[in-house]
Amino acid sequence: MKNSLKDLRAAKGWSQGDVADRLNVSRQTINALETGRYDPSLPLAFAIAKLFKCRIEDVFEP
Amino acid sequence: MVSVKQAPRRYFVELLISVLLYLGSLHLRDSFAHGHPDPSLLKTFILLSPILPSALIAIAILRFYRRMDEMHRRHMLESVGIGALVCGLGSIALSFSHGAGLPRTDIAWAWPLMGMGWLLATAWRGLNSSIAESGVAATSYRAAGMAAFVLLPTLAYALAAPALGWPHRHASVVLFATLMIVIQAGWAIFRRDPK
Known about the structure:
Shape of chain B: globular
Largest interface: A-B, 16 and 12 residues
Order of helices and strands of chain B: HHHHHHH
Shape of chain A: globular
Number of helices of chain A: 5
Order of helices and strands of chain A: EHHHHHE
Oligomer: heterodimer
Helix content of chain A: 55-70%
């Protein structure tokens, strides 16, 4: 599953650690999401969309 | 509530205390059993005493599991599954080896065998993640540094111990290497930003 997490994060000027702290996950998880090595659960995907104030389909695409 | 970032610190402290209690109870059990050959209620209690810290180790692992994020939970479960597979294969191999005339092996080996499979699976995943994140060169450099931190002092201990009159049996060298691994893990965990 592709995602635009890296672009959204860059637009906010946040580091991977900043996003990880805001979502209460590890920095490694954010890195794995950005590089496509891990697909998040639905609750985490919703939390990511909520953090960047956008719809879930704006962040993730199949 | 403990955050994902704080969880490794808590786990390290809880596991370290549990393991030290376990080693202490083993020492107490062995020293007491030698001095008291007659059966008694106290002796039975002391002989069974390592069970309690073993349970504390299991509780520490479970608490850490509950504090992990979802990706690490999944990775841990996969690693435990591989550990169980290794344990199953090992128990079958030991069972057949007993049938072939080799000495009977204690069932207490099941947990170390599973732990070894779990550890190897975790190390393999960590290595792959590190390569994906930092590249082969940086991962190799880091792995070499970690190996040197454990192996060089252990080698120095193994060479110097007989000359200095320190215990230099195989078990003490393994214990020294384990101590170096614990120090390294503690350093890696506690140098991170705690917030």
